Amino acid sequence: MKAFVMRRIGEVGFMEKDKPACGPNDAVVRATRGLVCTSDVHTVAGAIGERTNLTLGHEAVGIVAEVGSEVKLFKPGDRVCVGAITPIWGSDAAQRGFPSQSGQALGGWMYANVKDGTFAEYFHVNEADANMALIPDGISDDAAVYCTDMMSTGFAGAENANIPLGGTVAVFAQGPVGLMATAGARMLGAGLIIAVEADPKRQELSRYYGADVIVDFTKEDPVKKIMELTDGQGVDSAIEALGADITFQQAVKVTKPGGTVSNIGYHGSGEFVHIPRLEWGVGMANITIVTDLCPGGRVRMERMLRLLQNKRIDPTRLTTHVFPFDEVDKAFELMKTKADNIIKPLIVFS
Amino acid sequence: MKAFVMRRIGEVGFMEKDKPACGPNDAVVRATRGLVCTSDVHTVAGAIGERTNLTLGHEAVGIVAEVGSEVKLFKPGDRVCVGAITPIWGSDAAQRGFPSQSGQALGGWMYANVKDGTFAEYFHVNEADANMALIPDGISDDAAVYCTDMMSTGFAGAENANIPLGGTVAVFAQGPVGLMATAGARMLGAGLIIAVEADPKRQELSRYYGADVIVDFTKEDPVKKIMELTDGQGVDSAIEALGADITFQQAVKVTKPGGTVSNIGYHGSGEFVHIPRLEWGVGMANITIVTDLCPGGRVRMERMLRLLQNKRIDPTRLTTHVFPFDEVDKAFELMKTKADNIIKPLIVFS
Amino acid sequence: MKAFVMRRIGEVGFMEKDKPACGPNDAVVRATRGLVCTSDVHTVAGAIGERTNLTLGHEAVGIVAEVGSEVKLFKPGDRVCVGAITPIWGSDAAQRGFPSQSGQALGGWMYANVKDGTFAEYFHVNEADANMALIPDGISDDAAVYCTDMMSTGFAGAENANIPLGGTVAVFAQGPVGLMATAGARMLGAGLIIAVEADPKRQELSRYYGADVIVDFTKEDPVKKIMELTDGQGVDSAIEALGADITFQQAVKVTKPGGTVSNIGYHGSGEFVHIPRLEWGVGMANITIVTDLCPGGRVRMERMLRLLQNKRIDPTRLTTHVFPFDEVDKAFELMKTKADNIIKPLIVFS
Amino acid sequence: MKAFVMRRIGEVGFMEKDKPACGPNDAVVRATRGLVCTSDVHTVAGAIGERTNLTLGHEAVGIVAEVGSEVKLFKPGDRVCVGAITPIWGSDAAQRGFPSQSGQALGGWMYANVKDGTFAEYFHVNEADANMALIPDGISDDAAVYCTDMMSTGFAGAENANIPLGGTVAVFAQGPVGLMATAGARMLGAGLIIAVEADPKRQELSRYYGADVIVDFTKEDPVKKIMELTDGQGVDSAIEALGADITFQQAVKVTKPGGTVSNIGYHGSGEFVHIPRLEWGVGMANITIVTDLCPGGRVRMERMLRLLQNKRIDPTRLTTHVFPFDEVDKAFELMKTKADNIIKPLIVFS
Question: Are residues A230 and A138 in the same domain?
Fold first, then answer.
């Protein structure tokens, strides 16, 4: 079968691979739709170290092709959504309530990390009963594929933020994850949502997904502006959706005593991430800093799908480009350059 | 009346002051016992800025001398324990569940900060019904005075740490607050308590208060040692009880994915406190960082007193020195130099 | 001044009373709008025992007429919203996080219970700084008055229900509180909201406020239907918004293992409320039953007002009737009989 | 192999069975020690319906005899502790955080319910990597076997009770689970523990495990006495460890507003369990009722074992009798009659 791989750091391309083998608890899925994620770009740039001929991609839906002997809930032909994160559910971390950390930190992140990803005609699913969900009729693959990562990750940023009903939230950066964090904050009852973003198209989508106010950090100091918008009190919750030290610092600075900083961004560089000491209340202001990696699993996917089914949100507005699978290299290149105002490119498998 | 004050940055001394006035919701208390806190030393050194003739001290018990017209639960002659932190209970932060942040960050910290402290013959209590607790018969003033800050603060470090019953905890630094954090972790069901401390006397007390293992950071790398003691997994919970950047970093480094770093130390210097990026799981390992300032209030004090009443803990082992009030300057000097293996000096008012 | 009172059990009427006195922490407010609550009807029927010439009403907004010497945040002329529940913020229960239980069970419920209510030209507010909120410009009194009880109570039913984002919820009864529970569930990200209601007008409002499916209990067994709608799994969360034993039992029956039953209804009769043993998992199915009384306080009111300000909800759809204050007796009578499809009657003070 | 079975309702006996088969994720364990549980008695009496030749027992430790192809963490010869509850970790309920409810209510309870139990020379373990734990050297089988159910269940009763550090707790009934709930409350920092028990031997053990006060319900009204012991306030937390309607009602009655009733008892009879309406605050007093079934899993067992390893508790004081496996019928009979002051009979496999 055809696969789109990272040949080595800095180089991608197509290659032929064997269809994945299917162990007793596994499934093999034929991909129908996928999305390219900026983290694929980081991976190819070397963020997680060298990889050789590793299939890329972790956001995909498809049709079950094969299931192992112990799989009870699925059968070939089922249309399924597979979380980008596929935890080992009996692992120590999962038993402690943190399945995304199965085996080790971020250990539930397997695709395009420790095993082949989803940009291939077929991809493998570990613990299939626990990591796949049936896509209900009436939900398109084009929408369902957003459940796997963008919705699950962005919403987690909001879910972890301890937003009081009617409370105030600031969301830093409105890329696809940040936009879903904004949508999540809106769905979770925030009374005032302030989004920080400079790009006009993203600003527009931010309003669509629920931001009340947009702060353009190229035109004004976001910390000063957010303090002003909250009568000097700061927000109940700040969501960092970029993975940059500077926005993390700003998130701490705008959070009121007793508030929560919810980090959902991948911090890719530097020895340290910096907490501004004074605004952190010298370590005594009851400010909490929480972090997360995209929640996966069948139950999570089913809840995401339910939000689509009952029209709570339309994530397809994030799709700015569409490519057939044999042009995924072009989509990848666009995600790298962020040219053409790209937000998410949808990959269509024939 | 006689008061021990900070005359200006760097200078302390005794002076005569008027007995405090008593508003409708207030009480005035005649001090019987007090403790000197290292934070008094920091204050005099200028940590919170200039102060002029401000009475020092925030750990005290005494006898009610006067109550305001709206005070219902107390009367002159009552023997009371007053939290070091005296929140405004109707404030925004208190209504949100964070009374120590009344009015502003750390706003419940009034004594020897925004008003005169407790090192005087009489001291003032705001919202007396809410901020004082009766000391039950059978509990000495010498013990009760530990409820006001050392027990409440140290225990909070453990309470916030999300320690699972039977879980693993590391406590960084075994000063009086760190020792109470160790005792708190023990009282809250930790299955393995690792304390980091180099001083032999504090090591001994640490074992007394519940540490299973002591790591001497002058003899071995505490991060390496703690990882080894936990089979490479790290601890469920790490408590920072010093307020130093280096121990904070170590706390993050030894915390497993899904674990909690509970900061109870006052971070007194530097523009930033540093989160080690990789060990923090690049912001995605479900590690939570929580912070707190000594909880105050009648209910908190009553619970602390109940722990004394039913012999759950004996905090008086922390008392290494005793001085009469007119020698509090000597106690203060000792706390500054940490000479003579001092842990806490008890101040006796005549 | 004129007041509408419960003369004795079973009898209401108007009478002249003195304007309330204003203690140091208090305010006196001139009422501008009020709402009649079914609980006023219960009170007059004797639900809380005999009362003599007690002013009725607990849902009101108005203009500050007078403030006490210790009040800092308000001044005469301010337009304010006052929670139906006015806690004693320094009380034991408030310090424990349960301000509605100040002093005793339900102790924060003072109006028309232990002191005169709000159906008078002027009414009294205890701890004014903590229990009133400024109404921002642009929010009408007609809308703001819903913050005091209907929104705060109904939303609390949803907030306490531990609804996962995308989870399933059943709301039993769609009176004004149940409708706001439905709206709350929607605002908090429920993926499927099933409302149980037989009245056509309430069914219509239920859809407007966010229900996905309405179950008419006069036409089908709600337990059977809800199990069917959830593929035999039951709901994540069930909200009881009526205060009837039968709906409470149904709520338990439709809640899945690990789910939450959130009771917000006032259970007015019977020695016991019944938990169906088997569906409760013989006491071992991780089902949690939570209860609440309308949250009050300035912060709560500010959050409710923010939801109005940023157009998250329009509660005025609940207003089916309008009466001038001197006809509040007619409104009261309608609430008693529930004639004319009444939901909430708005009272306009001249 | 030899197995001790329930032949049918009301009848037990020994029979020969095949050694269990071992699937890819499973293990087969040779039993070394077991405990008889009162729930075995209930099962034989018909509490969960008819069963034919079902092997009894669910509390056991042993030596791994065989592991499946997918098992990575264990090998034959390992000395292991196996939770009484063996969840399906990928199940819907486990993903939601409630592994004991795998598949259905109480679905993690498999032994002597839906499959053969542990009173046989060999027993089967599903998802072996997730449901077994290595017993560290220095912990005897005699002690480790208490981790499987008595400690895990009793402690859960305390863990779920939201006991504030220094708070007040009442534990209803001091059978083996109730005694472990008392020990759990003590390990979790309760400041006052009131145990309700009439049996002198159990009273004595109750004091040993941490009760401060014992209320003998045959001599005084426990509700009245507990209210008296708490100055009329009631307790922060009440633990029901019997599974009787009357103690459940008492638990609600003694719980203060905002407090928690933690049910850990198996309620075996009656259509309803009764909530006393008035003391429940007519459904509005912020009283929470939580329930649980013995937590299982490797992480749970490891934490229980750590408590033994570091001498936090000695559960072997519960062992009042010892029988070889071929006399387990005598142990079973004693548990039925509760003769000879039996608490727990230890079963020794040769």
Answer: no
